[in-house]
Amino acid sequence: MTPLAVAQAALRHYPVDPSATLTMLNISENATYAVDDPVARRRTVLRVHRTGYHSLESIESELAWLDALRTDAGVRTPQVLPSVYGKRVVSIADGAAEPRRVVLFEHLPGTEPPDDDLERAFGVLGGLTARMHEHALRWRRPPRFTRFAWDYDGALGADARWGRWQDGMGVGPAERRLLGRLDATLRHRLEAFGTGPDRYGLIHADLRLANLLVDDSGTFVIDFDDCGLGWFLYDLGAALSFIEDDPRVPALIAAWVDGYRSERPLSAAEEAEIPTFVLMRRLLLVAWIGSHADTDLARGMGEQFTAGTCTLAERYLSDCLL
Fold first, then answer.
1. Is the dihedral of CA 303, 305, 311, 317 positive or negative?
2. Could you tell me if 50 and 175 lie in one domain?
3. How far separated are the first and last CA of the chain, in Å rounded?
4. Neighbouring C-beta atoms of residue 173, cutoff 10 Å
5. 34 has which bridge partners?
6. Domain span holding position 149
7. Residue-wise pLDDT tens for the chain (322 aa)?
8. Which residues, including other chains, have CB under 8 Å from residue 160's CB and lie 6 or more apart?
């Protein structure tokens, strides 16, 4: 079944009028649809999970953290809307060995922060990120909580979740040699940085401005589909996704760090390692583009993204030798 067919079948499990319409909002790892119910005069958001990306227990674990952040830490997250049978995750059989999982969320107000004041937005983002990290450190996870890890192996190594960077667009022999040096350096520095509880734990893992919604009442955080265990500073690397070579990046990092420190300590040693996490995320995105070549975003980035990554890699490796 197509994602749309799965979504249409899933609506029968929710208190939604049969006349409700589905409008595609986004397709990446999952397919996300706006559901407009003309009878209830309400919009909701339906997420159709990709087969094989998350288990039922993993999705339920994500939703548990959403609830806890909202109730314990005051971080505004979308509420999950249960089916008519009280289920938060609906399973739709589509002929495959594993059913498709579907979740219905409330529709939140607001829009992505505007580009005309990025430094201020990154400051807000840094503060929100610190509050989420602090909550993750204190939160007692429920039984059977399970999420994957964005450690070296899960990101770039033997269990690379988004595929191998070596299979990225435009990765030829010269690029493979340079990015191989980057990979080895990242692995060494991550091992040296360590996974102490003050710097490694439960993270959003895609905490970009695109996953914030801002309106007059405040800021919401959405799209926790990639949340898992990882380095806290990886959330900053993710915040800079696709703009790592923008000349404003040093100012954006400074604003993020200031916002973060307003909520949680960040040592000088941790701050010094920020470039490692920016390049880790960038190399991971080379892999993502290669494994998602059928998406509009990947096609738009293409080989130029790999070339830009090589430029950033040369600069980072030179700095590491100083």
1. negative
2. no
3. 54
4. 7
5. 23, 45
6. 115-321
7. 899 999 999 999 999 999 999 999 988 789 999 999 999 999 999 999 988 889 999 999 999 999 999 999 999 999 999 999 999 999 998 776 789 999 999 999 999 998 889 999 999 999 999 999 999 999 999 999 999 999 999 999 999 999 999 999 999 999 999 999 999 999 999 999 999 999 999 999 999 999 999 998 889 999 999 999 999 999 999 999 999 999 999 999 999 999 999 999 999 999 999 999 999 999 999 999 999 888 888 888 989 999 999 999 999 999 987 5
8. 153, 154, 287
CA distance 285 to 241: 8
Beta strands in 28-131 (DSSP E): 31-37, 42-48, 80-81, 90-92, 100-106
Q: How many CB atoms lie within 10 A of CB 207?
A: 26
Query: What does the buried/exposed string (b/e) look like for 112-133 if buried means 16 or more CB atoms within 10 Å of the residue's CB?
Result: ebeeeebeebbbbbbbbbbbbb
| pTM of the shown model | 0.95
- Domain endpoint, select from 106, 140, 162: 106
Q: What is the CATH number of the domain that holds 28?
A: 3.30.200.20
Domain boundary among 106, 125, 154: 106
